[in-house]
Write a structure and sequence with these properties.
Blueprint: H1 8-24, E1 26-30, E2 41-45, H2 52-61, E3 67-72, H3 79-87, E4 91-93, H4 100-112, E5 116-119, H5 139-147, E6 151-157, H6 159-162, E7 179-184, H7 200-222, H8 233-239
Parallel strand pairs: 1-7, 2-5, 2-6, 3-4, 3-5
Antiparallel strand pairs: 6-7
Length: 240
Amino acid sequence: MSRRRIGFWYRLAAVIAKPPLIVLFKRDWHGMEHIPADGGFITAVNHNSYLDPLSYAHFQYNTGRVPRFLAKAGLFKPFFVGTMLRGTGQIPVFRESTDAANAFRAAVDAVNSGECVTFYPEGTLTRDPEMWPMTSKTGVARVALLTKAPVIPVAQWGANEAVPPYAKSKRVRLLPRKTLRVRAGAPVDLSAYYGQEPTPDVLRAVTETIMLDVTALLAEIRQQPAPARLYDPRKAREGA
């Protein structure tokens, strides 16, 4: 989708959201050259703040390719927010229901139509105590294998410093002015999985391959070594 096809609603969202983002935050963006100029593709992004979607959407909007996010169905209920989400083509996800599969069909259709679909594979804010990506849901793997479209790993950091996840106090910390860091990488090599039966093991392997690339990019941003394995909140609970 070229910039000239971004459309009214996305342009309106940009008019509303970009000025405060520009005023309140500094930006450190890298890897825009990895965002495909045309054709359908997928981006997989880590999730550590409620501010993440705005931070990432700002980055990708400036490449000329707008993202379609998979968003909780409940977010579509408030009139203004729901109108904006529907107008910008975001995809509702009805969790734990028979309608959940519709989101993945819509995502496949969007990618096959030449659009970008953005996944937060973790499905929620990371539970990792050190804020690294955690084990993820396999929806991104399903769409990637069905479409064989490029999967662009993306890491972001800094939004969590302004709006910390699960904070019980001082939720918003705008001062001193934070830097929103976004880094996109080269497409994840998933060729070894093409043609394989999408068994649960294969889907988990594809998802982990994607998330390890995302984690490596985050390690570059943070200038810290990444953990040897992704944090698994279920195993953490079982070990408690």
